[in-house]
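Supplementary notes for students who missed Thursday's class. We covered one full example, reproduced here. Read the sequence, then the structure, then the short commentary at the end.
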Amino acid sequence: MSAGVEVSIYPDGPGQPSHGVDDVDFRSGDVVLYVNFFGLNTKKPGLKLSCDDVEIIEDHTHDPWSAWAWSSEADWCVVSLRKTLPVPGGGFLWSPTGHRLPSANGVTGERRTALSDKLASMLLKKLYLEGAPVSKDTFRCPALSGERRIASGNVSGMPDWNAALLSTFPISAWREQRRENHQILTRILAHSEKVNVLQGKFGSEACPFSGFLVFQDEETRNRVRHELIASRIYPAILWPLDEPVLEGVLTEHKELSRLMLSVHCDMRYGKEDMLRVASSIKRALRET
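Structure (token representation):
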């Protein structure tokens, strides 16, 4: 919006059976941003736009390795790497339809400092979790500093060391671990009447970003969140819509955002971790 681009919204969200793009009255030159919310989708959406001269950008950040991402027919696809991988920053842009990509930018001083702060924070937090004499403030300060810097300044490239890390990761194994962890959480909470774990739209092919819990009411959500934090389990609220940037957000989406919690299930965790998390959620639900 700060670049002078007119932005409008269309109805779509996590767990929604269908999107509302086909009902939008597009004009020539418009661009659609379509998001694979929380990695819940694995197949191309099959958009039927009202105008041919419209470009499509897909955001595959929450599952860059889905079948949809690999077989996309969008004009452009984007991914933020730090959401699913242990790197402090960086991203990818590609064009499935063969558009010419812009030249790569150099690394700005501001971005280099931001990523260095984030990396220092990641290493210090690892030491903290291993029991080293590191305080929370020691790793939180560079994390917050890096977060402020990473969202400011000019467009920047990725440092070589950040890119080099990518080739060392067992991505397929990590993704499969995330899928298995999500399935454990789903299986244990499947019969609860007070919470629902959002599932991929196409069954076992999906690899959700995390365990997205939808509670029957906001009070239950808040109580479970409090109980989990007391047990040193730290869920996140990733879809806050109480103060949306744009007008027109559906009431049901605002309501859904008040009922949701995100529980990590990535490669850092194994079966025993997920059993503990699921048991803590069930215990908290019994107390509501």
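Commentary. DSSP finds eight helices and seven strands in the chain. The longest strand covers residues 31-35. If anything here is unclear, bring it to office hours.
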